[in-house]
Amino acid sequence: MSEERSKRSSRVPGFYTQGREQRFRALGAEGIHFTKEEKLALDEGGLTLKRAENMIENVLGLYSLPFGVALNFRIDHEDLFIPLVVEEPSIVAACSNIAKLSRAGDGFITSSEASVMKGQIQILFNDAFGLNTFKQAFENAKPSLLESANRLCPGLVSRGGGVLALRFRTLPPNARSKYHQGWSSPDTIMGVVELHVDCIDAMGANIINSVCEGMRFELQQRFNIQTHIAILSNLADLRCAEARVEIPLHALAGKESKDSTPDESQRYVEGLQQGHRIVSAYEMALRDPYRACTHNKGIMNGIDGVAVATGNDWRSIEAAAHAYAALSGQYTTLSRFRVSRDEQNLECELRMPMAVGTVGGSILVHEGVRAARALLGARAEKAGELARVMVAVGLAQNIGALHALAGEGIQRGHMSLHIRQVLLEIGAASHEISTLKEQLIATGELNRQAARAALKALRNKDCKEPKDKLVMSKLKREG
């Protein structure tokens, strides 16, 4: 870690109240400087129409999302600014808030496994004799097959990666789900050859698919068997990342009153109660897949935002996460929560597959990705490092959702942030939003009907003001 990075602080009080140029200056003060090209990419959404037409077919235009930054994160004792591309206003705020609470302890501590992915080659057998004959021949031929597989990815091998192992397993004859009964063929004998591929810093889809397709034909010719599909598996259970954090219970207490002296014992009791409520909410997700689905979706709210910002395939990460949550046979939560034995901290952990890349694919096709990488610095250069950042953000977002649910409920805090979008939707001008938002939050009426009434009242009031007073008022609001 460079001296400049070690001195960096992601605590920037009042950042959300600042204008865009002020935010750039604040980041610059912490050693994060965007090039003209990166800043232009943020101005224009990071993608030109011409480039978009070369990325996918049937392009009609561009579709932009806000590019924000989450503050306060300390990950593995290093302060980081987290890029998030997301339309939901509560996500950036919730991540930043929990990251701030985590600083009362050691912040987030993370780890990641090697970038090993699985490729699959489907094999069909006519009878049990053919299956058993292949199994024995396959085991004897493994060394030469491994050499053949690595000859199909010389570039990856030269960088220290490649095919590490080959495995064969037989698939069960019957569908496990009642929904699929009657649609499968139980008489079909089916197996799969798995290739374990170290992708280094790539997500790995393209290279694994190429190797699998090449090996499919070699297996077919060498063993005289019937092969079928050949493709990677997105269930990256050999490529997991893990984050843990301990939040002191007193940090979970409600906000201190400005008119009273903080009572530490009272804050501890309040924080302990909140910690047990969070654990109780987690245990519901542990036992009930209907709750677990929403619980895990909260994790992905944070992870997807970083994945989009860094040009990664969030769909692949989503699929792996939910499949991993069901590996036990029942869909359950990805994260874990408990109050520590000494009842001083809320202990939180998250482990999940994290197949991300920092090279290859379309990662650098989108110019906005360069700005995200500028924020993350060296953490965006290695896949394992980026995976560690993303799992920490996912855990922060998960804690934020449970903290809100176990406290005042999810909706009030959500709507206080969402009300800006409601005001834009009903036609409020940019100079009217701050006044209307403050008024609606003060009254607690956070809905479209109240927003329309407030907007109408504000405009009627403006119309009744003397002309010179109205002009001065607007000039003041517009700065």
Overall description:
With 479 residues, the chain is of the alpha+beta class. It folds into 3 domains: 3-109 and 278-407, 3-hydroxy-3-methylglutaryl-coenzyme A Reductase, Chain A, domain 2; 116-233, Alpha-Beta Plaits (2-Layer Sandwich), CATH 3.30.70.420; 412-477, no CATH class. Helix content is 50%, strand content 17%. It is built from 17 helices and 10 strands. It has helices spanning 3-7, 20-29, 36-44, 49-55, 89-102, 128-151, 154-158, 205-223, 264-287, 289-309, 314-324, 368-376, 383-406, 410-425, 430-443, 448-464, 467-477; strands at 67-75, 78-85, 109-112, 116-125, 162-170, 189-198, 226-233, 240-248, 335-339, 345-353. Helix 5 (89-102) packs across helix 13 (383-406) and helix 10 runs antiparallel to helix 11. The longest helix is centred in the first third of the chain and has 24 residues, at 128-151. The protein is globular, with a radius of gyration of 27 Å. The two termini are 41 Å apart. The model has no long low-confidence stretch (mean pLDDT 89).
CATH architecture tag of the largest domain: Alpha-Beta Complex
- Name given to the CATH homologous superfamily of the largest domain: 3-hydroxy-3-methylglutaryl-coenzyme A Reductase, Chain A, domain 2
Q: Unreliable runs, pLDDT <50, ≥5 residues?
A: none
If helices are DSSP runs of H or I spanning 4 or more residues, what is the number of helices?
17
CATH topology of the largest domain: 3-hydroxy-3-methylglutaryl-coenzyme A Reductase, Chain A, domain 2
Distance from N terminus to C terminus (CA atoms, Å) equals: 41 Å
List the domain count as a whole number: 3
| General shape | globular
Strand order of the largest sheet: 3-8-10-9
Using only CA atoms, what is the Rg? 27 Å
What's the SSE pattern?
Answer: HHHHEEHEEHHEEHEEHHHEEHHHHHH
Major sheet attributes = 4 strands, antiparallel
Strand % is 15-25%
